[in-house]
Design brief:
With 265 residues, the protein is of the alpha/beta class. It has helices spanning 8-18, 26-36, 44-52, 72-75, 89-101, 138-147, 166-171, 182-191, 213-224, 229-241, 243-248, and strands at 60-64, 81-86, 107-111, 124-130, 149-158, 197-203, 253-260. It has a seven-stranded mixed β-sheet, with helices on both faces.
C-alpha cells in the first residue's frame, strides 16, 4: 500500500467521528465573540502568521472563519480589500466594530458557513483559514479554498489535535482523544500534486498562567467538562508535582501553518 492508495478524506472523517467532539454551532461561537475580540488586532500568534504571509502582488484576502477579524484586520491596511467569512453573526459584528474603530473601510463581512453555497463568495488573491479548519469534510474545504484563491492559500491547524496536554488528560484517568490535524491537509494536497510549505507557531497552552489551583481546575473543567472528586484529586497531584509545569499549563500549543499555491493559478 502507498499513501496514494489511502482515502485520506474518509480517514479524516473517521478520525473526526472517533474523537466524539460534538459539532460547534454558530450560537456556540456567538457566545465567545466578545471575549475573543481585542481592541487592537495582533498578539503573538496573529502577528507571526501575518508576517509569514506573502502579500506580494496581492490586493485581496478571503478570511474564512475570520472570527473577530484577528487576521483579516491585521492585513487590511496592506490590501485593497478583505472579505471576512464566518457563520457566527456576533463574530462578524465584532470584526466590523473593530474595523470602524480602526478606520478600515475596506472590510466586508459575509455570513456564511464552510458548508453553505459559495457561488457568490469572491475569489481573492489569498485565502486564509486560521484556526477555523475543523470542518466535517476537509477535502471539500480545501477545494473551496483552492477555488477562491488566485495566488496563495494559508491554513493553520493544531498539531497533534490536543487543546489540552494529553499527559494531563491521562493523569486524570481519561483517554485523550486527538482531533485530526494538519497531516491530513498535507496528505490530501500531496495527492493532488500540491507541495505545501509547512512551518509552526508555538503559543502557551489554554491552561497557562492560572492564578492558583482553583483557577487551574476551573480552566480544565471548561475544556474537558466537569471533574468528579477523584479526578479533582488527581489533578491536584499533577498540579502540585511540578510548579513550573503547572504554571505553563503543560505542553504548549503548536499551530501548523500550511501554505500552498492553488492549482488554478
Ligand atoms: C477559533 S476561531 C478563529 C478565528 C480567527 N480566524 C483566528 O484565528 O483568531 C474559529 C472561527 O471559525 C468560525 N467557524 C467555525 N466553524 C465554521 C463553519 N462551519 N463555517 C464558518 N465559520 C466557522 C467560528 O465562528 C469562529 O469565528
Amino acid at each position: 500500500m502507498t499513501l496514494d492508495d489511502i482515502d485520506i478524506a474518509e480517514l479524516y472523517r473517521q478520525h473526526l467521528a472517533q474523537c466524539g467532539r460534538p459539532p460547534k454551532t454558530p450560537a456556540d461561537w456567538d457566545k465567545r465573540a466578545q471575549r475573543m475580540s481585542s481592541k487592537q488586532p495582533g498578539g503573538y500568534y496573529a502577528n507571526t502568521l501575518a508576517s509569514r504571509m506573502n502579500l506580494e502582488d496581492c490586493h485581496s484576502v478571503l478570511d474564512v472563519g475570520c472570527g473577530p477579524g484577528s487576521i483579516g484586520l491585521l492585513l487590511a491596511p496592506r490590501l485593497q480589500h478583505v472579505t471576512g467569512l464566518d457563520y457566527s453573526p456576533k463574530m462578524l459584528e465584532q470584526m466590523m466594530a473593530s474595523a470602524h474603530r480602526l478606520g478600515l473601510n475596506n472590510v466586508t463581512p459575509l455570513l456564511r458557513a464552510w458548508e453553505d453555497d459559495w457561488h457568490d463568495v469572491p475569489v481573492c488573491d489569498i485565502a486564509v483559514a486560521s484556526r477555523s479548519g475543523m470542518v466535517p469534510d476537509l477535502a471539500d474545504a480545501l477545494d473551496r479554498l483552492n477555488a477562491h484563491a488566485r495566488q496563495r492559500v494559508y491554513m493553520t491547524q493544531l498539531v497533534g489535535g490536543h487543546f489540552i496536554d494529553p499527559e494531563l488528560v491521562t493523569a486524570l484517568g481519561r483517554t485523550p482523544r486527538s482531533l485530526p490535524d494538519h497531516l491530513y491537509t498535507l496528505a490530501l494536497l500531496h495527492q493532488q500534486g500540491i507541495d505545501a510549505e509547512l512551518s509552526y507557531i508555538d503559543v502557551p497552552g489554554r491552561l497557562a498562567g492560572s492564578e492558583d489551583f482553583d483557577d487551574f481546575a476551573r480552566r480544565v473543567a471548561g475544556s474537558l467538562g466537569e471533574l468528579d472528586a477523584d479526578e479533582t484529586e488527581r489533578l491536584r497531584r499533577w498540579y502540585n508535582a511540578d510548579h513550573e509545569r503547572a504554571t505553563r499549563g503543560g505542553a504548549p500549543m503548536r499551530w501548523a501553518v500550511v501554505s500552498w499555491v492553488p492549482p488554478s493559478s
